[in-house]
Structure formats: C-alpha cells, structure tokens
Design brief:
The protein is built from 20 helices and two strands. By secondary structure, it is mostly helical. The protein has a two-stranded antiparallel ribbon.
C-alpha cells in the first residue's frame, strides 16, 4: 500500500473498527476516533516532508484499473494544488474531534460519521480520475447529512435536507458536464491526465456549456452567489466541530474542482471570465454586508465564508499565475481562519449557551487566553498584515489588478467591509464593563488551547513566513498557467 492509500484508507478503517466495537465506553470511543485521525495527520506529515516542491507534476502516483470498458481507475496522486488541501483536511478533522467533547449523545455514530467525512474529502483531493473524484464527492454527502440531522440544532432537519438537495442538484450538472467532456477523449478513459487535452477536439460552444455545468456543480459547494442558500442555515444548525469541517474543507472541494476544470477547459474559462469576476466581486461584497448585520456569531462567520471564498473565485478568474497562487493560498488561509472562528464560537456557546454578540462584553478580563486567540483570528479574517489572510488577499488582488486594473476598487470595498465586522466583533466581545452573567466563565482548557493554538499558530506562522506555503504550490500553479496560456493560444490559432 502506498502512502496516499494509507492516508486515504486510515479514516475508513477507523470508522469500520468503531462500528464493530460495542457502544459502552464513550471515552474509549473518543480516544479511538482521535487516534485514527492523528495517525492520518502523521502520514500526511511524512508526505509533506517527502514531497518535491520543484516538481510541478503528480507525485506518489498509484494506479489500478477498476472498469477497463468504461476507462475508470483507482488513480491517486498529489501535486501542489492538492497537497495543501490534504494537509488541511487531516489537520481540521483532528481538531474537530478534539473539540467534540461536548457531544454526549450517539458518540459512536458521531465519530464514525466524522471519519467517513474525512475519507470522502481526502478521496476528492487525491483522486486523479474523474469517475473516482465524483464517487468521493458524493460520498461526503451521507455522513455530513447525518452529522447535521442528528447532532444539529432546532432546525437541523431543514438544514440537512437543504444541504443534500443543493449539493445533489449541483452534482447532476457536474455529472452531465463530465459525460459531455468524456465523449471527446480519444482513449475513452476518465483519467484527469487523459482528459486534460479535450479542449483541442471539443467545439468551443460545447466547452462553454460544459464549463457552466461545472460552475454550477462546484459553485454550490464553494458557495457562489446565488447558489449559497444552503450555507448559512447548515452552519448555524450544525455542531461547531462539524462547522469546522464544513467551512474549512468542504467549501474548498468546490474551489479545488473549479481550478481543475479551468485547466481542462481554458477556452471556456476565458470566454466566461467576465461572469466569473462579477460573481467573485459581488459575492465578496454581498457576503461581507450580510456578515456585518448579523447578531448571531455563527451566522456572521457563515456569511463571511461567502465573502472569503469570493477571493478564491477572483483568483481563479484572473487566469494568471499570481491569481492562481492567491486562490490556493486563500483556500488554505480560510481553512485555518474559519476553522478557528467556528471553534471559538463553539467553545463560547458551550459556556454561555448564547451566540448573540450583544450578550457579551469585556471577556478579556475573564478569558484572556480566549480573547488573545480570537482577536488574532479576527484580525486575520480582515487581512491584517502579519497573518496568512493578508498574504493570500495580496496575491489575489495583484493578480486581479494585472487583469482588470481599476475594477479592484470593489475588492478594496469588500476588505473594508470585512474590517468593519471584525473590529465590531472584537469591540463587543472584549471591551466595556463585565456583565454579571459573564463573570464566572472558564477560560480555555488545555485540550481546547492546544486545538485553537495550532490553528492560530498556523495563521501567524504562515503570515510571517509565507514562503513555505507559497513554495508548496508555486511549481504547480506556474505549470497550470503555462498550460492554460498554451491551450488558449492553440484554440485561437485553430
């Protein structure tokens, strides 16, 4: 078994083992779930140290034919685009399980669902066959549905149903587009490498229709306006550890898929570039304004995700290397920032049983460690220099300015709006007199401080020393940009 299969199947084996043991000792169940998630993190660390950053191609390839007649295969591989997402998925899953001590009902089923969700997410990022990609994409739906429906809030049934219907509806468009593209692959295989040159034989109008189908399918997950309807309710009703995975990783699956499709259909991406940049800038401002007017802390973080994922879409829309780098960096940055924000909101709710921002004041006096970590995270969310959010936003803005110039004034407006709600939140949480009901709140406990400290440490470390994160994907983004330019040029000559 190769290292990629070890990473992929470890959570699945953990879920299987949990399913076989009796549901008696909750502490043992929690420990076993955390153990398998931790082993997956260790495997990923080995992968990170073994990965050659100078090689733009796929590494650690694994291949096994599944259905030769259809051309599908168990094909795994990583490059500079997928490796950061694999590392983020394994890290946030471990943190989500560390933060799940408040789950006391159906502990066994909860941990099985979390591990199966990790299995599906890793499969999406590791798959190098579109058929396999689609299977893993759909596989994340089932455990996530149960996580929201079983352990969510009062409106959990509505939230879980919305999540499934939106995602499955988008998946239908993605499947139709995959079938349309598959028809123009001479080898009649679904390997990503074989389908990558389909733009040479596929008519331009059909490429555009196929790209629109992919945009809807992946846009639901990102989410892109107006396909975001499922997101706020799902985030608010899901348990906070599940929201960490939902915002930190599942949204990135859509952006990751769209990046792959831009390389697959560059001519269509160029033709629809104006649409992409409009959706990106509108989503950034729209999400920021909605986040600004929220009094529910969890709803605020949910709507801010729409704004931050708009930065990813903007980076993709630039179709240049700097923009692609910004998109990949923002995917990683938002995973750390959103994961930390949902974690602090969940920890605060466990102690106070309220998420209304008006109910708090001067928590810095009773929860200094919590206040320190939360303030850094909110400053990162608004793009404060010295944090990973600033590095990502700068790359996306420079890439956008090269492409559209003065249009980036709307980008600046979105950043100002995000600054407004971040500073407002810091002010309401940590200034003013201490309210009587808030005087006895316990500060972060050691396991909580460890989980939050890892995320905040990553936010600051990659903000001060961004080269390690940039270099991880630099060769791949440069190669992607060269391929896109070459194929657009070939298409214009034809």
């Amino acid at each position: 078994m190769g290292i990629l299969s070890a990473i992929l199947w470890t959570p699945a084996m953990g879920a299987l083992l949990l399913a076989l043991i009796p549901d008696r000792d909750q502490d043992f169940t929690r420990a076993l779930g955390r153990f398998f998630a931790g082993i997956t993190v260790l495997f990923t660390c080995y992968l990170l140290f073994s990965y050659d950053q100078r090689d733009a191609g796929l590494q650690f390839n694994e291949y096994f034919a599944i259905n030769p007649k259809v051309g599908s295969a168990y094909a795994l591989g990583v490059d500079g685009l997928s490796l950061p997402m694999v590392a983020l998925a394994t890290l946030l899953t471990s943190i989500a399980l560390l933060a799940s001590s408040g789950i006391n009902i159906g502990v066994k089923g909860y941990h099985i669902s979390i591990l199966l969700t990790e299995f599906g997410m890793l499969g999406v990022f590791l798959a190098q066959d579109w058929s396999l990609f689609y299977i893993f994409w759909e596989a994340t739906l089932i455990p996530m549905f149960f996580l929201i429906d079983r352990w969510g809030g009062q409106r959990r049934q509505t939230a879980s149903l919305n999540f499934v219907l939106y995602t499955m509806g988008g998946s239908i468009f993605m499947l139709v587009s995959l079938i349309a593209v598959y028809q123009y692959v001479p080898e009649h295989v679904s390997l990503m490498s074989a389908m990558s040159r389909v733009s040479e034989t596929m008519p331009k109008d059909q490429q555009i229709w196929a790209f629109l189908g992919f945009l809807i399918g992946f846009g639901v997950k990102m989410p892109i306006f107006p396909l975001h309807g499922w997101l706020p309710l799902a985030h608010v009703e899901a348990p906070s550890p599940v929201s960490i995975l939902l915002s930190g990783i599942l949204l990135k699956m859509g952006a990751y898929g769209l990046l792959r499709v831009v390389v697959l259909l560059p001519t269509a991406a160029l033709a629809l570039q104006s649409l992409l940049v409009f959706l990106a800038l509108f989503g950034m401002i729209y999400g920021g304004l909605l986040a600004w007017r929220q009094s529910d802390l969890k709803a605020m973080v949910a709507y801010s995700s729409i704004s931050h994922m708009g930065i990813v879409l903007l980076g993709i829309a630039t179709l240049n290397e700097t923009g692609f780098t910004g998109a990949v960096l923002q995917m990683s940055a938002h995973g750390l920032i959103a994961g930390a924000l949902f974690l602090v909101v969940g920890l605060l709710y466990e102690r106070t049983h309220t998420r209304n921002i008006q109910d708090y004041s001067s928590l810095v006096q009773v929860m200094p460690r919590f206040a320190f970590c939360t303030t850094i995270t909110l400053l990162a969310a608004m793009g404060m220099p010295g944090t990973v959010g600033a590095v990502a936003e700068l790359h996306a803005m420079v890439g956008g300015f090269r492409q559209w110039g003065g249009l980036m004034v709307f980008f600046s407006l979105a950043i100002l709006i995000s600054t407004a709600y971040a500073i407002r939140t810091i002010g309401l949480l940590f200034t003013g007199p201490v309210k009587p009901q808030m005087k006895q709140i316990e500060d972060l406990r050691p396991p909580e401080l460890l989980a939050l400290g890892v995320l905040v440490g990553g936010i600051v470390l990659f903000g001060l020393l961004p080269a390690s994160l940039v270099d991880l994907s630099a060769a791949t983004t440069s190669h992607m940009n060269s391929l896109i330019r070459l194929r657009i040029l070939e298409g214009s000559d034809a």
